Amino acid sequence: MKKLLLLFVFSMISCNSNKLELNNIQIMAYNYAPDYSIQKLTPNFIIYSFINSSAESINLRKIDANSDDVVGYSSSIEIKLLEQITTDAKLKDETFFVEKVTPEIEIYDGPIIRIKISYTNGKEMSFIFQAKNYDENSKFFLYKNLYDSIIENSKPELFDGKKLELLKRKQKDFAKYVHHKDSLLLPIPNIFPPPPPLDEVKFVKPK
User: Domain locations in the chain?
Assistant: First the structure.
């Protein structure tokens, strides 16, 4: 009887240790811009968010697209939405979220949005979607709702000091991850150097 009880307890511990529980979610909206210092296109972020398993979100957002100035703030995420995403993503793999190539031409000028979902057992899920409205049957519906929540449910208090610097570091690390994942989908081309200023162009009089 004691042996049976010990086996039961051990099996329960093993099951709990293998249970998929959410660790965190990271989301970044971005586009690609030329970085002439390394001759490559790199992710130019618009908004970055780090969400923990308690539905607490901290966010970094650019004040202006043409500036490096940023603000850090928190936002509210519904725990029900987070639970739905956790359940949905753990039953799928990344290939499920890859968009199929179709002959239809679609014009889209919004940002790329990449999400990364990390579980406590080490499993990770990452894929991209667009900043557009999806219907309820879309596989991206829950994830776009999460992105909208980050933007719409922001709190007025802004971060400064160490908290802001930590968030900046998280965003830079995630940008490297984004660049790597995107390059696996499609090789990111090198760029040509910028044209020289007009006053550096020399006109030679023909002989």
Answer: 19-99+109-185
Per-residue pLDDT of 64-113, as tens digits, reads: 877 788 999 999 899 999 999 999 998 899 999 998 766 666 677 789 99
Tell me, letter by letter, the H, E, C secondary structure of 82-130: HHHHHHHHHCCCHHHHCCCCCCCCCCCCCCEEEEEEEECCCCEEEEEEE
Predicted confidence (pLDDT) per residue in 26-76, tens digit:
999 999 988 887 788 889 999 999 999 999 999 999 988 777 889 999 998
SS3 75: strand
Q: DSSP letters of 14-68?
A: HHHHT---EEEEEEEEEEEEEETTTTEEEEEEEEEEEEETTSEEEEEEES-TTS-
Measured distance CA(159)–CA(70) in Å, rounded = 10
- Start-to-end CA distance of the chain, whole Å, equals 107
Q: What's the DSSP call for residue 140?
A: T
Alpha carbons 150 and 131: distance in angstroms, whole number: 13
pTM of the full structure: 0.79
